[in-house]
Amino acid sequence: VTMSVLFTPITLPAPEGPGLVLRNRAIVAPMCQYVIDAEDGVPRDWHLQHLGSFAAGGFGMVTTEATGVEARGRISPRDVGLYDDEQQRAHERLVTFLHSQGAAAAVQLAHAGGKASTFPWLPGQPDGTVPAADGGWSTVSAVDGPVLPGLSAAAGLSREGIAEVVAAFAAAARRADAAGYDAIQLHGAHGYLIHQFLSPLTNTRTDEYGGDEEGRTRLAREVAAAVRAVWPAHKPLGIRISATDWVDGGWDVPASARLIRRLAEEHGVTWVDVSSGGLGGGAAIPVGPGYQVPLAAELTRQLAGTPVVVSAVGLVEEALQAETILATGQAHAVSIGRAALRDPHWATSAAARLGIDRTELPRPPQYWRAGW
Ligand code: FNR
Q1: What ipTM does the predicted assembly reach?
Q2: Domain named NADH:flavin oxidoreductase/NADH oxidase N-terminal: which ranges (predicted)?
Q3: How far is the CA of 93 from the centre of ligand 1 (A)?
Q4: Is 125 a residue whose pLDDT tops 80?
Q5: Phi, psi at 365, each rounded to 5°
Q6: Whose CA is nearest to atom 30 of ligand 1?
Q7: What long-range pairs does 218-221 form, CB within 8 A, spacing at least 24?
Q8: Residue 192: active-site member
Q9: Residue 201 pairs with which residues in a beta bridge?
């Protein structure tokens, strides 16, 4: 019998009940597609085949791309959302298919804040702000001004505006439940709205939503509380964070550990996906194989004794690499992004490489002759 930690099931605990059991510890990372042929935030056939192939490809859980909790919270006009009935129905169709292939379904609920209304990484299109004539909109953030050089100025949210954002997260969480999602991942990373409030680089507010760590973490804590209050107690709530801004004086790993511990103790958060960066243009990020794994390892160490499941992400591409990260206790699970784009069946391939018996490979029965 081959022992593989990667292919040992894992439970994401929930406040009530047994929690969510994943068939293995390979999770698909959220990846925006920006390809929909309409700008109504409705997931299309593309999303069904894109996410569906990962579920057929053996992953334990598939995370949707950043999904706007309100229209102005989308990164680009082509992002999906979860704030109206038509979007909800399309999400339900997605989730039903993911489940049919044995994968759990997580939705990444997101608000891009001052990094909204931008078109990143589109072929033939420079990074930057979407003009109003092309469907762009004005953005909001912690304070007035551009979040990064080159972006147009965001408007600092009033307290009433913050309350509306929190309510939008809760409303999207209700829709996520109705659509059948098993888990929510709050997008607290990559310089989007929640991170804009967490980081001293972008949050220079002087009211109770800024200043010290208590103030800067308030939005994240209010969002988690509001979502947890409407999200069924038997379903896990997670968050993706940038564990460091990679900038002196920015958000850092000790602050991340304190935040996650508090979210776990006070708001029932049981899963953290550990990414980094997204603010402070010009940050020196040591990109390379597994470059964010040390951040996950430090959080795993500091969160020992809590129910929080830690997933590592970032250039985790090889089966043996993923297995080693888990077997050495640096994280409890791995999130896979680009390697899954190249091979949607990454998880099945990894299982075969790690010596899982052919009869136990996570693959659709109709692929029995594929030769893994
Ligand atoms: C991403 N990433 C990302 N992250 C996120 O939190 N929400 C998102 O919607 C997206 N969108 C997205 C689209 C595409 C095409 C890529 C390649 C990446 C980041 C992604 O989830 C992951 O953290 C990084 O890609 C690093 O992991 P890999 O790709 O090295 O495994």
Answers
A1: 0.99
A2: 6-351
A3: 23
A4: no
A5: -55, -30
A6: 315
A7: 219/162, 219/165, 219/166, 219/193, 219/194, 220/186, 220/188, 220/194, 220/259, 220/263, 221/262, 221/263, 221/266, 221/267
A8: yes
A9: none
